[in-house]
Amino acid sequence: EPEVTQTPSHQVTQMGQEVILRCVPISNHLYFYWYRQILGQKVEFLVSFYNNEISEKSEIFDDQFSVERPDGSNFTLKIRSTKLEDSAMYFCASSEGINTEAFFGQGTRLTVV
Amino acid sequence: AQSVTQLGSHVSVSEGALVLLRCNYSSSVPPYLFWYVQYPNQGLQLLLKYTSAATLVKGINGFEAEFKKSETSFHLTKPSAHMSDAAEYFCAVSVSSASKIIFGSGTRLSIRP
């Protein structure tokens, strides 16, 4: 069964460092998303991506964040200068279209020290 | 803007008892509604979705939900709880004009032996 895969499963980084979280969405999906979940809290929308550009973004997704689809399969989230409060589980998701269900990866746990 | 409210951050039921997890939505246009489940240290898995075809929606693992427009509700039920149902459950909403799914704050379901 097709699935969304994320790497790495766990990333530890020092405050101020850049991190890149990687995702391989399901191959025939057109919409890609990043969400985050701070420990014990709700799942928060960060950004959606369609047709090689950002479709929507939340207020969390500030200038420190960027997304890219560098090739036909990968979808990345970059945090330029990490802060302690960026520590969270980051989920990538993809969907066939608007209003269809999103399929989620297993997440990358980012720990900023 | 669309949103969902989940009533009760923690619900505890006995094994074999009815499970009822409450979700109310807010949307000025017809919504698409979802229930996702998150097992410990895992990603989000779709339980079921409402896309206006039928008001009673059946999902995986014996769960179902009923869309009630008059009550703006989409409560999740299961007739008989099993120990393996212990998890975090998230109600979510999207609308046709938005390319994102918005999650509620989640309800942690515990099952007593």
Topology (elements, then pairings):
The complex is a heterodimer of chains A (113) and B (113).
Chain A: E1 5-7, E2 10-13, E3 19-24, E4 31-37, E5 43-50, E6 53-57, E7 65-68, E8 75-79, E9 88-95, E10 103-104, E11 108-112
Parallel strand pairs in A: 2-11
Antiparallel strand pairs in A: 1-3, 3-8, 4-5, 4-9, 5-6, 7-8, 9-10, 9-11
Chain B: E1 3-7, E2 10-14, E3 19-26, E4 31-38, E5 44-50, E6 56-58, E7 64-68, E8 73-78, E9 87-95, E10 102-103, E11 107-112
Parallel strand pairs in B: 2-11
Antiparallel strand pairs in B: 1-3, 3-8, 4-5, 4-9, 6-7, 7-8, 9-10, 9-11
Question: Given the C-alpha coordinates, what overall shape of chain B results?
Answer: globular
Number of helices of chain B: 0
Number of strands of chain B: 11
Say how many strands of chain A there are. 11
Structural class of chain B: mainly beta
Name the helicity range of chain B: under 10%
Described by strand count, sense and barrel closure, the largest sheet of chain A is: 7 strands, mixed
Low-confidence stretches of chain A: none
> How far is the N terminus from the C terminus of chain A?
37 Å
Radius of gyration of chain A: 13 Å
Assembly form of the protein: heterodimer
Structural class call of chain A reads mainly beta
The largest contact between protein chains, plus residue counts on each side, is:
A-B, 23 and 23 residues
Spans of chain B of at least 5 consecutive residues whose pLDDT stays below 50 are none
Helix run count of chain A: 0
The residue fraction in helices of chain A comes out at: under 10%
Strand content of chain B is over 45%
General form of chain A: globular
